[in-house]
């Protein structure tokens, strides 16, 4: 009887350690874990979006690897230097007015000496010569830069096509505009120097006519023909 009692009591003590399954609690724990996993996934997606946004900002702020601004500026400076080399009749407004009135009179007064008219004629010829020379020099410089402009245009188009962000695209557009402005300035400079040369040549002819008229009047004198022996 004692052995049977021990067996029964022992069996009851071992049963106290049996695992009890609670379906309701298990479902609640599973739902909580699923919600926690979903929050983690949302946080991961948020971090990925932020990382992508930072990458996009980096691209948009990235500058062009190369720039033609220095090249365009150098060409414009060279053109300005050529224009600044204008001799005698310059592009300065006040000085041009003074020199023009001095060397290109509408008519010569009788008191002006023949030597003065000869010196003026020589100065006018020099002005016309220098004007034509400057115009041809500037034409040569512009034509010589056409190949360079073509290469610059190809570089800018390649930069524009390969732009990785808004800043690079904007820079490419600005430099393309700079190339157009440079070419426009070259055209204006060429027109100015050519017009200057044409004007100087026409003014030289007008002043030469005035000087010739005065010399003719002096040769005729009072209108009496020269008679030998008188």
TrEMBL record:
Q: Which residue stretches, if any, does this entry annotate as coiled coil?
A: 30-64
Q: Which InterPro entries match?
A: T4SS_TrbJ (IPR014147)
Keywords linked to the UniProt accession: Coiled coil
The record's annotation in NCBIfam families points to: PRK13874.1, TrbJ_Ti
Q: What is the protein name stated in its UniProt record? A: Conjugal transfer protein TrbJ
The source organism is Bradyrhizobium nitroreducens
């Amino acid at each position: 009887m004692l052995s049977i009692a021990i067996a029964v009591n022992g069996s009851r003590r071992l049963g106290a350690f049996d695992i009890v399954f609670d379906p309701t609690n298990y479902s609640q724990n599973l739902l909580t874990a699923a919600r926690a996993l979903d929050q983690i996934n949302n946080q991961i997606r948020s971090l990925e979006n932020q990382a992508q946004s930072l990458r996009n900002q980096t691209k948009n702020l990235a500058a062009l690897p190369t720039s033609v601004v220095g090249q365009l500026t150098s060409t414009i400076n060279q053109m300005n230097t050529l224009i600044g080399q204008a001799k005698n009749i310059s592009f300065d407004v006040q000085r041009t007015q003074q020199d023009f009135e001095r060397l290109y009179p509408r008519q010569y007064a009788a008191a002006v000496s023949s030597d003065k008219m000869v010196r003026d004629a020589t100065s006018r010829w020099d002005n016309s010569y220098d004007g034509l020379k400057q115009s041809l020099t500037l034409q040569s410089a512009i034509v010589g830069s056409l190949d360079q402009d073509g290469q610059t245009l190809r570089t800018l188009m390649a930069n524009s096509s390969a732009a990785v962000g808004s800043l690079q695209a904007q820079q490419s557009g600005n430099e393309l505009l700079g190339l157009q402005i440079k070419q426009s300035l070259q055209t204006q400079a060429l027109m100015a120097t050519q017009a200057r040369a044409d004007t100087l040549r026409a003014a030289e002819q007008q002043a030469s006519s005035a000087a010739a008229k005065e010399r003719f009047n002096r040769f005729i004198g009072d209108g009496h023909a020269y008679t030998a022996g008188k």
